[in-house]
Design brief:
Layout lengths: L1 E5 L17 H6 L19 E11 L6 E12 L3 E8 L5 E7 L2 E3 L2 E3 L2 E11 L3 E11 L11 E6 L6 E6 L21 E9 L3 E3 L3 E7 L4 E8 L11 E3 L1 E9 L6 E9 L2 H25 L9 E5 L5 E2 L4 E4 L5 H10 L6 E3 L6 H19 L1 H15 L15 H4 L2 H19 L2 H14 L3 E3 L1 H12 L4 H8 L5 E10 L2 E10 L10 E9 L2 E9 L3 E7 L10 E3 L8 E7 L23 E3 L6 E5 L6 E8 L4 E5 L3 E3 L6 E9 L2 E9 L1
Parallel strand pairs: 1-28, 2-12, 18-19, 19-21, 22-23, 24-30
Antiparallel strand pairs: 2-3, 3-9, 4-8, 5-6, 5-9, 7-8, 10-11, 11-16, 12-15, 13-16, 14-15, 17-18, 20-21, 24-25, 25-28, 26-27, 26-29, 31-32, 32-35, 33-34, 33-36, 36-37
């Protein structure tokens, strides 16, 4: 396909590459079991009921991984009838008794589940309550310190002994009787924890009371009235001090309690206070970009525990330290992406981890500037490009190492969101998409395709190619170029190869191309949709023979650069070069969305007024003439088009793709 494009002059600077490391959040969640993880498949009988409420009333200590107490579940039948009540609990845990609607019933142990045969079947819509009394050691198989169930260990830096729970993705059953279904969010919860009175116990929601049980024990009561997924309920027990403050949310009358349980060591808070305090400005910023912090009426906070990164337990992240602002903002980002909206399947963990990882980039961009953001994204790209294949969409949810793959789930997940921002070419639409997604799927679950549909609705884009290439597909393109310049005319052939050619042989994408010229760097945005594309430019600058071209200089898309070759025999004469005028206006003009589906919108500086708009096809034929900012292009066929926008200040030429 031959195209005529016009150069837009931009100036860029280079940044050093970031370091390629395993994401701390990934290292926290990877599976450390020595045997295959149990309970990977949804239990059919669990799907007979929907949980409305749970109450954990348990006793724990920071000195071991033992737990005892009861779990009350209120639920309703959603099957036509239910004759068997099933819940999950590790076989190593002892169930003392089961009360079902107040009646003590027998149960069978089937692997890591308990089956309770009901005396009478319950019909659809019937409400019921179960109370399960149990006790045992909640540590993962193989011993404590494995990062699942209840871990009891000592901080290597501070010497503090801590017991804390970790349940993502399949480990809640190790420490409490539960239903491990992502789709069945629990409507509300209460957590009561009886602990030694030299400790504090952190959990979800609002701390309602601390009651003395006896001379040695206190009972903590945490109340949450927000919906929560099973793996986000948590408990941490240690000798903590409470460091709390409130953060006002810009543009509202709301404020958020930020409550932190820090090791009871005089040096701990002193070391971390500045970074903990930064959580306030982070939550205010993200409330503007993602929508108001979803649990603002309860709290946000942290419980320290000896782990390598963090875990986004709802309203109270479990965190190893506060050394890294990126880790702090990542876990905070999860309160929107992961907690308020949760992935519908572990295949779609992108909904959680991709967006939380991109929150790190947004943090760097907002608080530290474009250079820091570019360095951060360079490191992300370096990680992804270290291997040739792999999809963001998870192909094997029986393997937690695959679910939480640092390169694919975190880094590639973040990188392709950055690519979507580039494709939209309009930050207002991009951030509106994030807000609409949060609003539409609040308190429930969503897939990657659900996010795509929201993005298409907001932006008007057709994102089939985007999802097929970057989300479901594998690999990345390597771009090469052959070019020639004769006077003001430039011919450019862009070719691409795929790192995963049998899975994703071609990447159709917008692409920035930077030309080094004697008069300065010039960048143009083009669209490539085949393995070899020929483009023509009018350029009044002299392109350097050495180091002539850089692909994607601003790191918008995952790609490698191949060879760049000067060819003096390459044709530079476009077959329709006289169809469009040269770019003369020095004013900015934006045409979006690009690619477009059924409409385009023209955005101009406030000082400019449209006098006429003409849309040409790639042969220079006039297709549409209009004078409105919003233009219906449904009648156009798929392909490349050019918009001539005439204004009271001059005119602009912009290209777009009709899908």
């Amino acid at each position: 396909m031959q195209k005529l494009v016009f150069l837009v002059c931009l100036f860029i600077s280079s940044c050093a590459l970031g370091q390629n490391t395993i994401h701390p959040c990934a290292s926290t969640k990877m599976n450390h079991f020595s045997t295959p993880h149990p309970n990977l498949k949804s239990l059919a009988n669990e799907n007979d009921y929907d949980i409305n409420y749970v109450k954990l009333d348990v006793a724990m200590s920071n000195l071991n991984s033992n737990i005892s107490g009861s779990v009350t579940t209120k639920a309703s039948v959603i099957a036509n009838s239910m004759s068997l009540y099933v819940f999950e609990l590790a076989n190593a845990m002892m169930v003392d008794s089961v009360l079902f609607n107040g009646q003590k019933l027998n149960f069978n142990v089937v692997g890591n589940t308990r089956e309770v045969t009901l005396p009478n079947s319950l019909n659809k819509g019937a409400a019921f309550q179960s109370v399960i009394y149990y006790h045992g050691n909640g540590a993962a198989p193989g011993g404590a310190g494995l990062g699942a169930g209840i871990t009891t260990t000592s901080s290597p830096s501070w010497g503090t002994q801590v017991s804390y729970t970790m349940s993502e993705s399949y480990s809640a059953y190790l420490w409490w009787p539960c239903k491990q279904s992502l789709h069945d969010k629990i409507d509300s919860s209460d957590v009561y924890i009886t602990i030694p009175n030299n400790c504090k116990a952190g959990s979800n929601g609002v701390l309602k009371s601390i009651t003395a049980v006896n001379s040695n024990q206190d009972k903590y009561y945490w109340k949450s009235r927000h919906m929560i997924d099973y793996y986000l309920i948590s408990i941490s027990v240690a000798p903590y001090v409470d460091y709390s403050f409130k953060q006002a949310l810009t543009g509202t009358n709301d404020s958020v309690l930020i409550q932190n349980y820090i090791y009871n060591n005089p040096n701990t808070l002193a070391l971390f206070k500045t970074n903990i305090d930064a959580t306030g400005s982070m939550i205010d910023y993200l409330s503007q970009e993602y929508g108001r912090y979803p649990f603002y009426d309860e709290k946000y906070g942290h419980c320290m525990a000896p782990l390598g990164g963090g875990m986004e337990h709802q309203t109270m992240t479990t965190i190893g330290s506060f050394n890294s602002l990126d880790v702090i903002v990542h876990e905070l980002g999860h309160q929107w992406f992961g907690d308020n909206v949760t992935c519908a399947t572990w295949k779609d963990i992108w909904v959680n981890e991709g967006f939380a990882s991109y929150t790190e980039h947004l943090y760097q961009e907002h608080f530290n500037g474009s250079t820091a953001a570019r360095t951060q994204m360079d490191g992300v790209h370096q990680s992804v490009l270290s291997s040739p294949a792999g999809s963001v969409y998870v192909d094997d949810t029986t393997n937690e190492n695959r679910i939480f793959d640092s390169r694919l789930t975190y880094d590639k997940g973040s990188a392709i969101i950055h690519t979507l921002r580039f494709i939209m070419n309009n930050d207002s639409l991009f951030f509106e998409t994030l807000k609409q997604f949060q609003q539409q799927y609040a308190n429930t679950v969503a897939t990657g395709v659900d996010f795509k549909q929201v993005a298409e609705t907001v932006s008007g884009l057709n994102l089939n190619d985007y999802m097929n290439q970057w989300y479901f597909g594998e690999g990345y393109p390597t771009f090469s170029a052959t070019w020639n310049q004769v006077g003001n005319k430039v011919g450019l052939v862009i070719s691409q190869t795929s790192s995963a050619p049998t899975i994703t042989p071609l990447f159709k994408t917008d692409l920035e191309v930077l030309f080094h010229t004697a008069q300065g760097d010039t960048t143009v945005r083009v669209y490539v949709d085949r393995s070899s594309d020929t483009l023509y430019f009018n350029c009044g600058r002299t392109i350097n023979l050495a180091n002539a071209i850089v692909f994607d200089p601003n790191q918008w898309i995952l790609n490698n650069s191949g060879t760049v070759t000067y060819n003096s025999d390459l044709n530079v004469n476009a077959p329709f070069a006289n169809a469009l005028v040269n770019l003369q206006s020095t004013f900015d003009c934006l045409v979006y969305p690009n690619p477009a589906f059924d409409r385009i919108q023209v955005q101009l500086p406030n000082t400019e007024k449209i006098t006429s708009i003409r849309i040409y096809n790639s042969l220079g034929q006039l297709m549409i003439e209009d004078c409105n900012h919003l233009i219906n292009i449904a009648s156009l066929g798929t392909g490349n088009y050019y918009v001539e926008v005439n204004t009271n200040h001059g005119h602009h030429i912009k290209s777009f793709v009709k899908n």
